Structure formats: structure tokens, C-alpha cells
């Protein structure tokens, strides 16, 4: 998977080192290819949206329950101190994360306490240029609905202090973290189709560059998927900026994809 991304980037590099005439010819060919890929992505997004709408409520809750139970009972979840997760949006038919979130936000000393107290970071869209940040929250009251009716944290907490942002928080990055990752479709080779905003791809690229420079651990990128969102190989179109996932959790269990996931999750 990593090799695929690397080779594609390498190809782009060779491409830009050509003479300007050839480069400009190739550049228009590349734009045509990339717009064809964007069109293919749109077609697949709308196909999956239909399949998700067709899922019966009973099937959806069965898969929601199984996915969350798999995560909550796993050793890799129990031993991780810091996590990023999405706040599921029912209207978008996203795999429910409410049970995981309520466990993560349960205060210590209660009888439902998770084994290790964990820190939870959730996304907030900053602007229309694909910029998104993760902010630490400690209670669901930290969340407010945005213009798309997705719950997200306000940048300041109730005392007016800036919330913790993992990208500017060194301690956080030194510890392996799990990213519960939203997407429209996934495959068992690690390809992921997002909603088309580029938010996750941009954030994860920023993180990856920083982690490489500072020799920080790479987080495990774990996608939560209904069965209809897992496609066979060759269906999901990808571009060089698409960040591959490490693992999928579906109602059938965990599918570790990358070496890192095989080490940590098998
Ligand atoms: N729960 C959740 N939180 C999230 C995301 C997400 O996908 N789910 N995001 C992940 O990026 C960011 C918000 N970005 C979003 C981008 C598009 C849509 C959306 O409603 N898309 C419609 C299609 C709109 C169109 O094509 O015009 C859809 O998918 O049906 C929602 C969130 C940050 N927080
Ligand atoms: N690292 C990046 N730097 C700059 N632009 C990027 C980057 N990653 C993605 N983009 C741009 O964002 C736009 C949306 O990309 P794409 O359709 O792959 O989003 P997506 O993966 O579906 O969305 P998301 O990442 O939010 O789940 C494209 O124009 C793409 O070129």
C-alpha cells in the first residue's frame, strides 16, 4: 500500500522534471486523468450513498453494535491513551460512534470506567480550503452543530481557553494514537474514498510530514465500515494525495492491512 503511494508520487516527480513543452502536454493529460478520476469518485460516492440508504435500520444497528463492540473489547483500543475519532452523523449514515464516545468520555471512578483514562480529539472544519483540525474534548457539551449539522468542538472551551490541538502538542504525537476514520468506501488494500472535501487527506499529510521530520510514531488509521462500504480491489479510484488506511473494522471483525496494523491489531 505504502509502495503504491510512493510510486505514484515518484511518477509525478519525474513528470515535472521533463522539458516544459512535454511537461505542459503531459500536464493537460494529467488534468484530464485527474478529472476522470474525480468523476469516477463521484459515481462511486453516489452508488454507496444509495446502498447505505437501502440498509434496513435493523441491519444498520446490528452492524453499529458489532463494530463498536469489536473496538471496545480489543486490546489495541484498551491500551491506547489518545485517540482521534469522528462524531457520527446519522443523516450521513455513518457508522455510529456514540457508544465508543460515551465510554471515552465516562469519568473515572464510575462503574463503567474504561481501563485507562483516554484523551479524545475530534474534528472541526476550519475553512473551505480542506483545512480541518482536531481538538480535545472532555464532554459531549463541548460540541456544537456546524452548518452541515455535524457536531464539532468550538475552538475555545467554556473557560475561554484554547482547546488542545494534537498537531501543536508534542507529548501527544510521541504516543501511538488511533484515528477512527470516516469514509464513504474502502477496500482491503487500504484504499479509501472520502466525501470529497480533502479534509482528512490534508490533515493526515500535515501530520505525516511532521511525524517524519520529528521521528514521531505513525498513528494507526482505522476505518469503520458497514459491509456495503467495503469494495473489492480495483473499484476505488485513487489519486496521489489519497492517504491509505491501516485497517478496517466491520461487522465481520478487524481487517488489518498495513504491516503496522498487522503488528498491533492481529
Ligand atoms: N461525522 C463527520 N464529521 C466530519 C466529517 C465527516 O465526514 N463526518 N468530515 C469529513 O470530511 C469533516 C466535515 N466534512 C464534511 C464534508 C462533506 C459532508 C457532506 O455532507 N457531504 C455530502 C455530500 C455533499 C455534496 O456532494 O454536495 C454527503 O456525503 O452526502 C459532510 C462533512 C469533519 N467532520
Ligand atoms: N495533501 C493535499 N494537499 C492539497 N490538496 C489536497 C490534498 N489532499 C487532497 N487534496 C485535494 O482535495 C480535494 C478533494 O480530494 P478527494 O476527492 O481525494 O477527497 P476525499 O479523500 O474524498 O475527502 P476527505 O479527505 O475529506 O475524506 C482534491 O481537489 C484534492 O486534490
TrEMBL record:
Its cofactor is Mg(2+). It catalyses: (6S)-5-formyl-5,6,7,8-tetrahydrofolate + ATP = (6R)-5,10-methenyltetrahydrofolate + ADP + phosphate. InterPro entries: FTHF_cligase, FTHF_cligase-like_sf, NagB/RpiA_transferase-like. Coiled coil: none annotated. Its EC number is 6.3.3.2. Transmembrane segments: none annotated. The lineage of its organism: Eukaryota, Viridiplantae, Streptophyta, Embryophyta, Tracheophyta. This is 5-formyltetrahydrofolate cyclo-ligase. One of its GO terms (biological process) is folic acid-containing compound biosynthetic process. Keywords: ATP-binding, Ligase, Magnesium, Metal-binding, Nucleotide-binding. One of its GO terms (molecular function) is metal ion binding. The keyword Ligase applies. NCBIfam families: MTHFS_bact (TIGR02727). Belongs to the 5-formyltetrahydrofolate cyclo-ligase family.
